[in-house]
Design a protein that fits this description.
Bound molecules: cobalt (II) ion
CATH superfamily: Peptide deformylase
Strand order of the largest sheet: 1-2-3-6-7
Oligomer: single chain
Order of helices and strands: HEEEEEEEHHE
CATH architecture: Alpha-Beta Complex
CATH topology: Peptide Deformylase
Strand content: 35-45%
Radius of gyration: 15 Å
Largest sheet: 5 strands, antiparallel
Helix content: 10-25%
Number of strands: 8
Distance between the termini: 36 Å
Structural class: alpha+beta
């Protein structure tokens, strides 16, 4: 395993659309292992492959001590709205208030190519949506309705 460098906002890589994973192979497993190691080294709730320079539709979420590895995730339903604060490992120095759906269902594949579904609500849903936005080149400042300083 190896820790990878996290790309910061301003780098055009973060603005690109990532490509679907076609092969659930050792290379994918290495990427996922490295992303987990990277996330653990810096702390945070999630990380998307473009943040480590890989334009693949892969992201990880760690919530309530449970790790989710999402390959080719798709939002299949969403309900409600809520506003809460978000930060991003690629955005240094500020957080922001972002409106997101309250309840979601996501379909994705695990690292072995097995299709899974996940229901998520509240901040858990928010983390999924934030990470999935990265796969389409979207960063939370694009959506924020209020900027928050780190100490707000
Ligand atoms: Co982020």
């Amino acid at each position: 395993m190896a820790k990878r460098n996290i790309i910061k906002m301003g780098d055009p890589i973060l603005r690109k659309t990532s490509k679907p994973v076609e092969n659930f192979d050792a290379k994918l497993h290495q990427l996922l292992d490295d992303m987990v190691e990277t996330l653990h080294s810096v702390g945070g709730l999630g990380l998307a492959a473009p943040q480590v320079g890989m334009l693949k539709r892969v992201c990880i979420v760690e919530y309530d001590d449970k790790l989710y590895e999402l390959v080719n995730p798709v939002l299949v339903s969403s309900y409600g709205k809520c506003v809460d604060n978000e930060g991003c490992l690629s955005v240094v120095g500020f957080r922001g208030l972002v409106e997101r759906p309250q309840v979601i269902d996501v379909e994705y594949f695990d690292r072995n190519g097995v299709k899974r579904t996940q229901h998520a609500e509240g901040y858990f849903a928010r983390v999924f949506l934030h990470e999935m936005d990265h796969l389409d080149g979207i960063l939370f400042p694009d959506k924020m309705i209020k900027k928050l300083k780190d100490d707000d």
